[in-house]
Design a protein that fits this description.
By secondary structure, this protein is mostly helical. The protein has 13 helices and no strands. It is a multi-pass membrane protein.
């Protein structure tokens, strides 16, 4: 597994991958900016209009409480872009990864597995749907875990574990679906759940590093292509020709 991670790291900086890397980073930055600004605007609305609306609903007795809450939200709004960039990064990379699945996988397969049959490109719609599902599920899990951040950092542990499970799940299934049907890919992931989750920890650690995490789609996909190849074992169609040639020589 460590060897697969090292190979993925070395390949994302290789010349053939640089174009994909810059496209991936550019798209990720655009999405992060849009979502973070949206979060900041939402919090600003809660701090201004929301306070007036809540006081009208609850009555003047809650004015002091709502004013303090509005002040806290105002500070959060000021940090909206930064916090959005941090907490939304795994969701962003999930969506970006779905758009560059085949570009990354093709490079990895050609360089490291030239004797294997190449995978079949995923339909754009299928890959995008998988990415959107993972992104939305990631945001949902993070919203649920967010209150626990205040309790001795428990929320950050939950974030990390959830990220490992969600991203490991998505990247492995995307790699597997190049060779199997979606149902077979999901079944294979479940059969190797412990290994896929452990591999997901590597991706979770990578996406936790600021700036570097912009390359997560490339690292995660390249890494999981290696993991899929190792878990799938030697392909039958590659073994049988060798056996036939041995029989003929006898």
């Amino acid at each position: 597994m460590l060897d697969a991670a090292v190979k993925a790291l070395s390949q994302i900086l290789s010349p053939p991958m640089r174009t994909i890397l810059w496209r991936s980073i550019g798209l990720a930055l655009v999405l992060i900016t849009v979502l973070a600004i949206g979060l900041q605007r939402l919090l600003s609305w809660f701090a201004d209009t929301g306070e007036v609306w809540a006081e009208g609903m609850l009555g003047p007795n809650f004015h002091s409480t709502l004013h303090v809450l509005s002040w806290i939200i105002s500070i959060s709004a000021g940090l909206g872009v930064v916090l959005g960039g941090i907490f939304l990064m795994p969701a962003i990379t999930s969506l970006v990864a779905s758009l560059f699945v085949d570009d990354v996988a093709d490079h990895v397969e050609r360089e490291h597995y030239p004797a294997d049959h190449p995978g079949t490109a995923l339909p754009v719609t299928l890959a995008t749907i998988e990415g959107v599902k993972t992104a939305l599920l990631t945001i949902l899990v993070y919203v649920v875990a967010l209150p626990f951040v205040l309790f001795a950092g428990a929320g950050f542990i939950i974030f990390f574990i959830a990220t490992a499970w969600l991203l490991g799940r998505e990247y492995f299934e995307l790699a597997a679906m190049r060779f199997r049907s979606p149902d077979d890919a999901k079944a294979m992931r479940k059969e190797n759940a412990a290994t896929v989750f452990t591999a997901g920890l590597f991706i979770a650690a990578f996406v936790s590093i600021p700036i570097v995490n912009l390359a997560t789609p490339l690292f995660g996909m390249a890494f999981m292509v290696h993991m899929y190849k190792r878990l799938s074992g030697p392909r039958r169609e590659l073994i049988e020709p060798a056996r036939r040639s041995n029989v003929r020589s006898v």
